[in-house]
Amino acid sequence: MAKTTSGFDFVIHKRRPGTDLVRWIYDEVRSAILEGRLKRGMRLPSTRELARRYGIARGTIVTAFRHLYAEGYLEAKVGAGTYVRTFLPEEFLHAKRTARASTEARKFTPALSKYAQRLAPAPAGRGQPAHAFRAAEPALDVFPASLWAQIASRRLRAATRKLLADVDPRGYRPLREAVTNYLGTARGVRCTNEQVIIVAGIQQALEITARLLIDPGAPVWLEDPCFFGVAAMFKALAAKIIPVPLDKNGLDVAEGQRRCDRARLVYLAPAHQFPLGMTMSLERRLALLNWARRTGALIFEDDYDSEYRYSGRPIPALQGLDQSDSVIFAGSFSKVLFPSLRLGYLVAPTRLIDKFAAARYTMDRHSAVIDQAILCDFITEGHFGRHIRRMRELYANRLEVLRESVRRTLGELLTIPETEAGVNTVGWLRKGLSAEAVARAAAERNVEVIPIGQFVLQKRRPEGLLLGFGAVDDRELLRGVKDLAEIIENCGKSRHRALPMSSR
Amino acid sequence: MAKTTSGFDFVIHKRRPGTDLVRWIYDEVRSAILEGRLKRGMRLPSTRELARRYGIARGTIVTAFRHLYAEGYLEAKVGAGTYVRTFLPEEFLHAKRTARASTEARKFTPALSKYAQRLAPAPAGRGQPAHAFRAAEPALDVFPASLWAQIASRRLRAATRKLLADVDPRGYRPLREAVTNYLGTARGVRCTNEQVIIVAGIQQALEITARLLIDPGAPVWLEDPCFFGVAAMFKALAAKIIPVPLDKNGLDVAEGQRRCDRARLVYLAPAHQFPLGMTMSLERRLALLNWARRTGALIFEDDYDSEYRYSGRPIPALQGLDQSDSVIFAGSFSKVLFPSLRLGYLVAPTRLIDKFAAARYTMDRHSAVIDQAILCDFITEGHFGRHIRRMRELYANRLEVLRESVRRTLGELLTIPETEAGVNTVGWLRKGLSAEAVARAAAERNVEVIPIGQFVLQKRRPEGLLLGFGAVDDRELLRGVKDLAEIIENCGKSRHRALPMSSR
């Protein structure tokens, strides 16, 4: 499995005074091979080429190479040049050399910033493929990848200078216009193109917002429970997190005011709360906006998962009700199209547009422009709207399959409440069952469920599980429900067995 | 120029109690049109569809629409449905409504974080096309866009689930391997795949580094002069900036130690300093590494612009000499391929890999995966190496054209020093000429030059201009030199005329 020529120029370190030329070339090539910088099977530049490049006599290089042939590092192929050998001599002599970082260096931790110390570790990646009941992932197997490929190919073939050069940190203008239209029509967002900033997703939108508004110690209302990524991000910034409870009407605004009337920022997902799934009522929305206008607080509206609504009327964005330029609205294309796309949008209050642009520019300039152009075509040619409608139908069916089989198989052990929207739902466990124990046992059988307790900031909730139904097909959903039923029954039994012991 | 149907569901606000149904539908549609959420020429869903969706009688919607037809908001096209009219009645009655942000709201600035207050505004975008002597932009007109399109199309047509789903925040693994190979071979970087993190560019690499290491007040050495984006980023983080002067051997390490021996981080571009262009000597490199090992400081090696070296031997990275896991190495594909790609790499010290991954994850997850896969193919199939070689030849020629015509046309008015690498060079003005005055006059004639003084942190330099030669062809280079000669001569004259006055 020889690699082909690297195609790159090979660099060598300066000769230390006192080393002879042959030795220097020999050492450089040998150590590059041993350190893996020159890979096995890789073709080296010709001696003539190397001589020219480093300004030394070709004979010197030929002599050094002769040693390296003799010792088994290189081999010559007639008419094809010089290659790094596939089997190397050192392998017979020593254990394989690993990366040069000494264990000594590893022990020594450099002085990290307070931010770095507070930072939560990145989670381990998720397995392939998606098992029941993976949450927060779309049905990737039905994504129209070949249509996307066609659009991409057309865009790229006609790529203009403009598409290859840098753009406004707020993003590719035609995409911003398409997003403005989409949000106006489908989400009731009221904004101009100027307010729309293309970002890498809701997480980046929130990161920029938080950094523009939050100094260490600044109070922030978070929905309790909420997505851990959100809480972790505010913790890393040393915000003072004020958990605000939820009821069936969404965020309890009055309770938030009691806990901290002077919060700088509120984070919430009014269309479809994560993980509980309720929609915020109009009365609560108006109360929140009034409070924000009075106190000068800003509201971050996470519109995640709002695209799929199965019953009831589509709920326009909170942003559309705002009269005081207080709402930062954010959504993502990653969940509607595919997560690796890393494109989303933020609608900035007009008075903050320049600050958002400045922050994005200093952090990472802007999102990749060709991707933005492809997405723009996908939207303006009507594919996006069609894709949403198709997915809505698919997800509605999957939800129905899940509900039906849970009802039939799990009965009162697991209750799925009315689910109006989204690709995740909560399932409440019968009293006495532990969501943590169920999730642990489920993981061993490739059933992915997350205990609701893991999202809780403060207020204890009944034991429940987050169940995703978008990413997996009917068969896998049914398999998941069947296995989950056995798991829950076993957990129930072991609890019953355990009771006499724990009551002692 | 009628727009086609939006394809999105149109959302309407909840009916306020007491409004009748017809009035409600009428108001919602009318205000959506006036606010631009329903665009002119856009097709509306059918009355049947709307009735179904909002659970109201179709007759109600028909009545509301009849008012809207009568008043000129909507028009019916036989057999084709209902459209928003291209000419709207309000235009004859009122001035056009702008976005809803009231001027009152604009005046009120919310409480911004200290970071936001320190943030420099994003610069205005650059014009199209590139004029002489645009800096820091590659020759976009010769980028092999159709080859890129082919690779992209092949990748996308075969896009697997894996390519659409989220990945490790450090990036797409095969690309990280390709980058490891490239950096090992071409740049003398010693690292494993584990250390390589794909980022959105050097700016993001630096942003992450700074946030992991810098608390407000932490001392950082910056090369003086250096790129303004770098200084602005550290200023926004309230780092204590220690300007360290440069001489022909690069950063004056001894002077840095005198100024602040306990710096937490050093930022430098040893391969090709920006904007002065010198390469750091081996002695200085070793001195810097020794100092870092002794004090525990970390070194950020910006490898920007190292790919193009026209004379002398390729200089391996500082990172390759480091024995104490102290160097963060970063480079970008944006300048070698195209800026809007937004892909670069960072090689983390082994002991900081997890922190880098955690920071990237919380900031924006990871870079778009399909772009990473396309780039990976472009590298492993040898196109990248070939592209660099082709560009090196092109840029060497352009540099020669620039040098020759400056020598011939500008003589002693502007001196270009020996330029070994990169796509920018400095031009020193004859004593007495003002770089600012020249740059201002040049801008009026579409000649882009940046006074070196704009990059200075502290130490005054002779008057000089940054001249880019990569992005513009020979004809434009010659045009630029000719115009620049006239501009400089005029500036010289006006200075001479001004002298008697200013000496009074």
Give a written overview of the molecule.
The structure is a homodimer of 504-residue chains. The first copy, chain A, is built from 18 helices and 14 strands. Chain A has helices at residues 21-34, 47-54, 58-70, 90-93, 103-107, 114-118, 145-157, 161-164, 173-187, 202-213, 228-236, 253-259, 282-295, 353-364, 369-380, 383-410, 435-444, 474-502, and strands at 74-77, 81-84, 196-199, 219-224, 240-247, 250-251, 265-268, 298-302, 327-332, 344-347, 414-415, 424-429, 450-451, 464-468. An eight-stranded mixed beta sheet of chain A has the order 3-10-9-8-7-4-5-6, with helices on both faces. The longest helix of chain A has 29 residues, at 474-502. The radius of gyration of chain A is 29 Å and the shape is globular. The termini of chain A are far apart. The relative contact order of chain A is 0.11. Chains A and B meet through α6, α7, α8, α9 and α10 of A and α6, α7, α8, α9 and α10 of B.
What topology does this entry show?
The structure is a homodimer of 504-residue chains.
Chain A: H1 21-34, H2 47-54, H3 58-70, E1 74-77, E2 81-84, H4 90-93, H5 103-107, H6 114-118, H7 145-157, H8 161-164, H9 173-187, E3 196-199, H10 202-213, E4 219-224, H11 228-236, E5 240-247, E6 250-251, H12 253-259, E7 265-268, H13 282-295, E8 298-302, E9 327-332, E10 344-347, H14 353-364, H15 369-380, H16 383-410, E11 414-415, E12 424-429, H17 435-444, E13 450-451, E14 464-468, H18 474-502
Helix pairs in contact in A: 1-3, 2-3, 7-15, 9-15, 10-11, 10-14, 16-18, 17-18
Question: What does the oligomeric state look like here?
Answer: homodimer
Give the overall form of chain A.
globular
Integer average pLDDT of chain A: 88
Count of β-strands of chain A: 14
Helix content of chain A: 40-55%
Give the N-to-C terminal Cα separation of chain A.
65 Å
Largest interface: A-B, 143 and 143 residues
Number of helices, counting only DSSP H or I runs of 4 residues or more of chain A: 18
Low-confidence stretches of chain A: 1-5, 92-107, 497-504
Strand order of the largest sheet of chain A: 3-10-9-8-7-4-5-6
The main pleated sheet of chain A reads as:
8 strands, mixed
Query: What structural category arises from helix and sheet content of chain A?
Result: alpha/beta
Q: Approximately what portion of the residues of chain A adopt beta-strand conformation?
A: 5-15%
* Radius of gyration of chain A, whole Å: 29 Å
